TrEMBL record:
Keywords: Carbohydrate metabolism, Glycosidase, Hydrolase. It is an enzyme of class 3 (hydrolase). Its EC number is 3.2.1.55. One of its GO terms (molecular function) is alpha-L-arabinofuranosidase activity. It comes from Pseudonocardia cypriaca. GO terms for biological process: L-arabinose metabolic process; polysaccharide catabolic process. This is non-reducing end alpha-L-arabinofuranosidase. Belongs to the glycosyl hydrolase 51 family. SMART domains: Alpha-L-AF_C. The keyword Hydrolase applies. It comes from the Bacteria. SUPFAM superfamilies: (Trans)glycosidases (SSF51445), Glycosyl hydrolase domain (SSF51011).
Length: 513
């Protein structure tokens, strides 16, 4: 097998921006089997549940320290009217989900059920409101219903529906993909609407809202600039108007042939390389949006939010193609690990990210059987678990001094080695990805500035990048202990040596002085 080597310097005593835990957020849309059959089975289901929420899914996700959960969409958000999903379940009207499969939904999973789910997960709710087919009043009253105490029409309605105390709901999305399914608007049109809606989304009783304007697809900088112009002006102020606090963008990864154009588990070496090149390009996209925002907001008061990201392949054979259920391979896990390294680098501006989606849809953490109570943890799930130590940690500089050559993919290229690091509470976490298809890489890390001892090292890999987990083989791709070498280095540093096999992801946990 071919081999390569790399030298990396990690400055453990140099502090960078905090890696917000919200960069590890999740997304649950009324799409396919994400909600119904994924999170929700109903109170009468033989699957163990609490109030209709399936407990095996909740238990698995609690191990990830899920920081926030986005709901009810996605495109579905701009067709969803929240009052249809509160009150006694028999009285809730049936709706047709015209966006995703034209199926009927009984609205049994609504606002109270979502809030119960967030409480079980220990996650902050991220509620996405309806701009496309809703009204300012509708969204404003939803905020009041959820977060206001005392006495008001919405408070009385909430109490009549069984909840006396308000909830804490910090994150609010102002519509979704307004350039497409959310209304096919021009950026300037939506920017005016976003300001209008945000004005009437009030902070009630100490619940401070983080209002997120729906932004661009990929690198459409016109959307970001229109939204920044709505709250600031070029070079004339240091502080934008405090109308909305975040701007989103969406970025999906595929094999260079477009969304949903190739299978999830059957792909060529070239398709693998194209996937990694597309995943790596999110670095350029984030930098471009950040540059536009910096021109209007040099103090970085407005956050950038990537509230939909992940891989998008063909739906699994035999499933409804509009349900977007796909398998999840080691390739997907490496897309996630690479994204997180890039997110960490941009933590000064990037405040939140939400993978699409949590259960049974697109790049899911968990796959559940359509009948029965079987559950599979995907390779991507394990990346989130192995990386959770970065949440709210301080990023530290990582310098690739020497390493393998970049992989050329047509006019694009990507580096086969990706590394990030952070420190928190006397610990450090190193994340390393070897994206090469057939090359072992020996990585020598010079850990500088603080003494370090290894407390745990793990690796996630498989026989091939197509490897994935199933009900019959749930541990085909699962973390294993990794042997590493630690010895004194030059000038008081510590030298850590890690051997990474092809298509692998590793984390090394350290105690630091």
């Amino acid at each position: 097998m071919p081999t390569s080597s790399a030298r990396v310097v990690v400055d453990l005593d140099v502090t960078g921006p905090t890696i917000s835990r919200h960069l590890y957020g999740h997304f649950a849309e009324h799409l396919g089997r994400c909600i119904y059959g994924g999170f929700w089975v109903g109170e009468d289901s033989p699957v163990p549940n609490e109030g209709g929420l399936r407990l095996d899914v909740v238990e698995a996700l609690r191990a990830l320290d899920v920081p926030n959960l986005r709901w009810p969409g996605g495109c579905f958000a701009d067709a969803y009217h929240w009052r249809d999903g509160v009150g006694p379940k028999p009285d809730r009207p049936v709706m047709v989900n015209t966006l995703w499969g034209d199926v009927e939904e009984n609205n049994h999973f609504g606002t109270h059920e979502f809030m119960a789910l967030c409480e079980l997960l220990g996650a902050d709710p991220y509620v996405n409101g309806n701009v496309g087919s809703g009204t300012v009043q509708e969204m404003s009253e939803w905020v009041e219903y959820l977060t206001r105490d005392g006495d008001s029409p919405m408070v009385r309605l909430r109490k009549a529906n069984g909840r006396d105390a308000p909830w804490n709901v910090p994150f609010w999305g102002i519509g979704n993909e307004a350039w497409g399914c959310g209304g096919n608007m021009r950026p300037e049109t939506y920017a005016d609407l976003a300001c209008r809606y945000a004005t009437f989304l009030h902070d009630h009783d100490g619940n401070q809202l983080y209002r997120i304007a729906a932004g661009a697809a990929d690198d459409d900088l016109a959307w970001t600039e229109a939204l920044m112009k709505a709250v600031s002006c070029l070079g004339c102020t240091r502080t934008p108007r405090n109308v909305f606090q975040g701007i989103s963008f969406h970025y999906y990864t595929f094999a260079g042939d477009g969304i949903a154009k190739s299978p999830a588990t059957e792909f060529s070496d070239e398709q693998y390389h194209r996937t990694m090149a597309k995943a790596a390009d999110i670095d350029r996209v984030i930098a471009a949006h950040s540059a536009v925002m910096d021109a209007y907001d040099p103090l970085r008061r407005v956050g950038l939010v990537c509230d939909e990201w992940g891989t998008w392949w063909e739906a699994e054979p035999g499933t409804n193609p509009r349900f977007l259920q796909q398998q999840n391979t080691l390739r997907d896990a490496l897309v996630a690990s690479l994204h997180f390294d890039i997110f960490h680098q941009h933590a000064a501006r990037l405040r939140m990210a939400n993978i699409a989606q949590t259960v049974n849809v697109l790049q899911a953490m968990i796959l559940t059987e359509e009948s029965g109570d079987g559950l599979v943890l995907t390779p991507t799930y394990h990346v989130f678990e192995m990386n959770k130590g970065h949440q709210d940690a301080t990023s530290v500089p990582v310098h690739l001094v020497d390493g393998p050559d970049a992989v050329a993919v047509g006019d694009d290229r990507f580096d086969p080695l990706s590394v990030s690091a952070s420190t928190k509470d006397g610990t450090a976490l190193l994340s390393l990805s070897n994206l090469a298809l057939d090359t072992d890489t020996t990585v020598r890390l010079d850990l500088r500035g603080r003494g370090a001892t290894v407390t745990r090292a793990r690796i996630l890999t498989g026989d091939k990048p197509q490897s994935h987990n199933t009900v019959s083989a749930p541990d085909a791709v699962t973390p294993a202990e990794l042997a590493v070498a630690l010895r004194p280095g030059a000038l008081g540093s510590t030298e850590l040596t890690v051997v990474l096999p092809p298509h692998s992801f590793a984390t090394v946990e350290l105690h630091v002085d």
